[in-house]
Amino acid sequence: MNELIQSMEQRLFGQKLNIRLLVTALLAGGHVLLEGVPGLGKTKMARTLAELSGGDYRRIQFTPDLMPGDITGSVIYHMQDHSFTTIQGPIFTNVLLADEINRSGPKTQAALLEAMEERQVTIQGNTYKLPNPFFVVATQNPVEYEGTYPLPEAQLDRFLFKLVLDYPGEEAEVEILRRHVPFGQHQEESLAAILTPERITELQRRLSDVVVEESLYTYIATIIRKTRESKRIQLGASPRAGIAVLMASKAWALLDGRTYVTPDDIKLVARPALRHRLLLTPQAELEGGTSDHIIQETLGSIPVPR
């Protein structure tokens, strides 16, 4: 897994933490929402991960006219022999890029709910299992809201992490310019797979071997419950958010070569795991508050287990 991270860092500059968190989410069996302005490499990040992980990769461009059947698949009737054929949609893949997910309406967005939570899809009353592993990377633009449909809370809660991509530093940006290849001269070389879907599934099972002390379970629960007590938060984190923090901290520890979770693991994954699950009050937003600030303050107010 660390070899996979290093290979991604050779293609994507200035996003080291987000790359590691993306791989952490894959290992934890969750999904990721990438938010960033155009041109930061969100699509390239998902495609690079898919190539290195050795699995199938599909991309769906979300648009206002996209229908649920365009994602999940449909049933076709053949008049010649009066039979039906099920055509599986692009969701039947290992890594799915849902590009600009908020450009489609709620009905189309809802087509991903069953797939992301239960790893299955229902087409015309028949249920089909999705490939294992199944990993959704969705992207959205934080500044362009015209013609978009905000993701409902139920949809946001299906994502393990929300990663915010920022502009790279000067050194990283210079490296991007240095390595740029004009379009049409020659295609960027495809990457050799480092892992296989079977190996990823095997590594995901190893999370059960990562030890979590009793005091850390209490620590996670306290963090989650504290978000519901804040007067600046209209909707706090759910028990599913606590599970997200637990699984992410286990995956982070495993990537670090450890079979035990530390409080630092929990504090590191708490912000990407919770920032999209908290709904701030209008007053808090008017005062310039953000989910990240409130999460940071919450973590600072809770005694760290020793």
> What is the percent of helical residues?
40-55%
Q: DSSP strand (E) fraction?
A: 15-25%
The oligomerization state is: single chain
Distance between the termini: 29 Å
Largest sheet: 5 strands, parallel
Radius of gyration based on Cα positions: 20 Å
Counting helices, strands and paired strands, the structural category is alpha/beta
Give me the strand/helix succession.
HHEHEHEEEHHEEEHEHHHEHHEHH
What average pLDDT do the residues reach?
89
Given the structure, what is the number of helices? 14
Unreliably modeled segments: none
How are strands sequenced across the largest beta sheet? 2-5-8-1-9
Shape: globular
The count of strands amounts to 11
Walk me through the structure.
By secondary structure, this protein is of the alpha/beta class. It is 43% helix and 16% strand. The protein contains 14 helices and 11 strands. It has helices at residues 2-9, 16-28, 42-53, 68-72, 106-109, 113-118, 153-156, 170-178, 197-205, 214-229, 239-255, 263-274, 282-286, 291-301, and strands spanning 32-35, 57-61, 73-78, 83-88, 95-99, 120-123, 126-129, 135-140, 161-164, 233-235, 279-280. The strands form 4 sheets. It has a 5-stranded parallel sheet.
Please sum up the structure shown.
With 306 residues, this protein is α/β, with parallel strands linked by helices.
